[in-house]
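Illustration: diguanylate cyclase.
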Amino acid sequence: MGRTVFDERSVPTESGGFFLRIRNRGLIAAASRRNPVDELAPATVQALERIARSSGPLLRLPRDVEASYREQWRVNANQMRVLLALLPVLIFGGLALAPVQRLGLSGAYHELLTLLSFSVIVPTALAAALVAWLLPERAISGAFIAAGGLVILVALETLRTQGVQWGYTADHGLAVAVPVALAVLGGFRFSRVMAMHACYVAVVLGGSLIALTPSLSPITWVGEAALLLVSALSALWMETTQRRSWAARRLLQLQAHQDPLTGLRNRRAFELHFELAAAQARRDGKSMLFALADLDHFKLVNDRYGHDYGDGALSEVAVVLSQFGRRPLDLCARLGGEEFAILLYDCEPAAAEDRLSVLVAQVRALGIDNADAPLRKLTISAGGVISDGSHSLSLLYRSADEQLYTVKRGGRNGAQLGPLVDS
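Result:
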């Protein structure tokens, strides 16, 4: 089926200063890579339907949409990630610049705080924030945020262990706030959150062993373990909710442009696609085939065999029609009932007549029973016109319908290509 992007979002333009252009270029590239809803495989659609109805943890989407989801989620979480990266700059920059007397620290400890703040914590946080802001759609942005958090943890543990040796007990709440904040606000996947929590525990234990200082008290460990557990469960719940909501939105986009019975595009999708194809045809100087096709004596199928049989017949015919819309600007759609529309880009009259004849032959070859029809099999009639993209869709409809009506009057089970009617 034709490639039409219906997942419309506001996309920035490549304007502004140098850094803004880098950021916007990434956002534009990310938007262009989002899977058009009409390119989703049937198995993927079925998997999304199961996901939208399911409950319980959800850590992965179908393979062909997982990358699109992750990229979109990184863009959505980008602003919060940048703010999280800038927070240590404000905190430690303020602590380092504050008077020693107000902090109640010794001169040597304040000097160490100042040194680590301006040589490690602040530069690391600024670098992570800059990368996250410049490359919001890239996985490396999250990696820089997580790596920055790890560096800050090491710096904080250095402050804690050195403070113990100097007789100053530093509050450990600031350190545990790093993995908790990243888990709850950073938009990281559950597996990444667990890795960051494991790094936190390793840093704290490693700092105590290396510096030969007492580890945290049991009460402190219990409290921090509870915080880490709650934040990890929160990350799991948020990831599950986001994935399930994303799947539901994707299905809604699909349902808005797809016929639920046949899987073909619906009338609205066809009209949107036509405008794109017509504009491209005008730019390229190409011609297009616009055709209407209608199943012959289809009412007799429903009357004799029932609507379930008729729905099955429509689905089989749709499979045949879908083979005629494989190129990016080609499209076949169900307009309603037993009526279909066909748009073939870069199609000259001779090729158009051949394609319509093949369609008629392939539908007849399906051998679908229609005992009350003259040929006792289900057949199709088609009428088409050629356009250069400058004609309105309503004119093409009328013209193709006139050709279709001529085929119907001539006995059905055929196709005809003709001129445009007078507008």
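Reading the tokens back as a structure: The longest helix spans residues 218-257.
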